[in-house]
Amino acid sequence: MPRPTRLLLAAPRGFCAGVDRAIQIVEEALARFGGPVYVRHEIVHNRFVVERLERLGAIFVDELDLVPEGAQVIFSAHGVPKSVPQEAERRSLEYIDATCPLVSKVHVEAERHHAKGLGIVLIGHAGHPEVIGTMGQLPAGAVHLIETPAQAQSFDPPDPANLAYITQTTLSVDDTAAIVAILKTRFPSIEAPHKEDICYATTNRQDAVKAIAAECDGVLVIGAPNSSNSMRLVEVAERAGASYAALIQRAVDIDWPRLEGLATIGITAGASAPEVLVEEVIDAFKARGDVTVEEVRMREENVVFKLPRILTA
Fold it and tell me: Catalytic residues, which ones?
């Protein structure tokens, strides 16, 4: 069976600074305090990463009521509602917040807008942990969630002249721009973020996929199905010209029959997928035939976020 002879690797891809920091927080907490260390929700959306940390001594739980009294607990990179640290303090749990600093920036924006008396529109996906955490920074009803252009078109705020919008950090840049355009047309005075809320890593990975998609017969995105930024990469690849785009978690998930006859395959990874999984996929192609591997790099990334002081003092 003929195999693709050309693999195009999108770059940047894989881990972002916020994911790197969150994983380091768990690793450093285990090294300093010993296991077990409890983590509320997946530290990042990737089972390979979570299972490795479990082997090191991390215990992942859905809610704080599963954490023993007096234990150490870490909050995931996606951010949490204010009620979560309040509950941790009530139960005398020592906690470390691994929320990505760029998500924390959105939390601060929400509070600032609310303090000014503005109604807040959050562009994002219902049920995503980041959206739950952002909405949970303010009283119930203070944040209006909009997911689609149609919802932006029908949105009927109580005070149209006093609005601000914020966004989830892992959205499709193009989809978000379409929603923002509608909001700005309907509500010209709506206040925008001082700096784009969609994070640098999300934007860079989408730009990198756009750069290769038109050359590719198919694109494989390595990531988890509950990873927003990974799912958006699949959508971006399809819109940018790839006739086939699929999300895979590991090399074992590759649909080889579907790839038969495709000469050029693009490969990228969501911001919570480690590079070792990219290498695993490349090795799987090499095991099936001769391939050439080319990297298409759009830009360099050198963002680094500091660890919490409790882990560096």
Answer: 130
